[in-house]
Amino acid sequence: MGDVLAGSHAVWEFDSDSVLIRYERGMRTPKLLQALGERRVPHEALAAVELAPGKRGTVELRARPRPGADPLIDAAAGQLKDVCDPYRLVLPAEREALAEYYADELRAVLGPAAAQPADRHLVAAPPAPLHFKAYDGKASFDGATVSFRWFWTGASTAKWKAGDQHVPVPEITGVEWRAPEVMSGHLRLLRRGRNGAAGPPCPPCPPDKDPAAVVFGIGYGMVHESLPFAAAVLEAVRRAGGSVPFADAAVEGGPTCGSAPVGADPARVAERIRHLGELHRAGFLTDAEFTSKKAELLAEL
Questions:
Q1: pLDDT-based confidence at 62, cuts 50/70/90?
Q2: Nearest to residue 254, comparing CAs of 164, 145, 140?
Q3: What Cα–Cα distance (Å) separates residue 289 from each residue in 116, 139, 173, 184, 283?
Q4: pLDDT at residue 145 above 60?
Q5: Are 28 and 82 within 8 A, CB to CB?
Q6: In the predicted structure, residue 87 carries a pLDDT above the cut 60
Q7: In what order do the strands lie in the sheet with 18-23?
Q8: Which residues fall within 8 angstroms of residue 292, CB to CB, at 6 or more apart?
Q9: Is the CA virtual torsion 56, 62, 68, 71 positive or negative?
Q10: What is the reported pLDDT for 264?
């Protein structure tokens, strides 16, 4: 095809075997798309192409990747808002005929494999090294090892007792990412057991007490930072041949599913409540959010 289609926040360049999507860096472009920069999507990574009416006199051209073809979409697990969808191109309604032409061109190159899950990642994840600040620690990935370094102002007693975590990719079987919503998001590494084998699922510890997880909050673990990180780890795991649908045990040295809860240090709880109070006074937390989180911290005592 070799043509270019420019829309809101992105430009699609159509090549003979792929679509190169370049994202704008303007202030109105979602930060996730800015962080991605550009992505090359092979035709074989696509399951479908759709065109539908949009809002306020627009049309939306949208590609649907095959399950397993894109580590970013796999990690997001359906949690991305429309505005952050990297496969969505918004165009003025008067360009609907042109958008329909390109949609038909893409549909024509989809093969029989489009209806099947991909057996490998076909779209590249953001390259390492990557890092971001969570509420309770700093997460880093150098391409071979994921590291969590705990913050004394946010990490739970269980995480402090377990110590900073350094987990090689071969010990990871998957990644669980939950979008940051006030104080409820997290990124959790699914790990192999002590014998290195995968087994039946095991109920995990709460993310704030699990040394294999970092917790998101206001201003911490933002989507444009934590989701590309999760995608990069997921791609590394799959490339190493270690991706399985479950993990069988808790982190080495950390609390297991059946362990008794560890009492929190009162001084540390007081410091975390003080930090929450600062966020509350600055307007980052509502009265209800502050009260709820404060009650959770007091319950640790």
A1: very high
A2: 164
A3: 43, 25, 34, 11, 11
A4: yes
A5: no
A6: yes
A7: 4-6, 10-14, 18-23, 38-42
A8: none
A9: negative
A10: 53
